[in-house]
Amino acid sequence: MSLSRLDVFTLSHNAAKWPLPCRVLLGCALAVLVLLVGEVVYLGPSRERLQGVEARGHVLQQQLAEKTGLAATLEVRTERLRAMENKLAGLLRQLPAESEVPALLEDVARLAVANGIWVEGLTVLEEEPRQLYTGQPMQVGATGAYHDLAAFVSALGGLQRVVTVQDVTLRPEGALLRLEMLAKTYRGTTPSDKVRQALESGPRFVYDPTALRDPFQSPTLQVARAPGRPALSPDLTRPRGMLEGMTIDQFEMVGTLSNDMQAFALLRVGSRVHRLAVGDYLGPDHGQVTAIQDGYVELVELFPDEQGAWLERPRTLMLNVNS
């Protein structure tokens, strides 16, 4: 009988007459065939779907654990967010609603004189509007000794208004250093009729050159720094007044007097009150009164440094409101 005439019914009918081993082989072959068909058609896709579901279940368990941890700290995070929002609002209220560039320029000039440096260039650049504030950058160029320049930059950060310093460069210029930096002040975008909140005082960094060396000089050339600005020597032949025999700390400003021509400061030493005008001398360091205001007196003192040159430094006597 040829294969073309093979009758499956006849084969299955005659299989009952096959020997036992043949029937066992035939049954095993049929079982294997059924398993292969079931694996390909049903079990394989189902197993892949099961693996995918298990993987998604594992991911969901991880997400659930993360969400549970976040939910447990939700109140704490909410309080932190509120504190940050309140702090931001407070900082924005501390910013002036109008530009204070003129006052800042006066502060820069005052700090430069106090630290003995020369501000040779100060350029006000265009404002930089932001969503919550407006920045006002200024390019500053100054010349002075290393420690004087460092003290000047430190003093800028201690002003009542918010001032930041960036892009600082130093380069030698003769015996001194040239400082170039970008200073920024800020103002808020709130309407000007709102009351500005007072700036909260906090710990500030103050540059202290004690035990610090100038990195731009050889260690063998280091000398103790005397804070002050180079000045001409005073007239040592000038007769000294009575008030020049007392230290500045002994004087106390108790008021002012003025007429149409001149203003006078009233300074008390012990039980006596002395009247001084602009140009009068005070204290042992050739201190000379340079300005008299209602609340304070400004003067400039002269003193020699360790190298024989003369330096000048400003001093201020504040009005004692309890006097």
TrEMBL record:
Q: Which residues cross the membrane?
A: 24-43
Q: Does the keyword Acetylation feature in the UniProt annotation?
A: no
Where on the tree of life does the source sit, at the highest rank?
Bacteria
What keywords were assigned to this record? Membrane, Transmembrane, Transmembrane helix
Its protein name is Pilus assembly protein
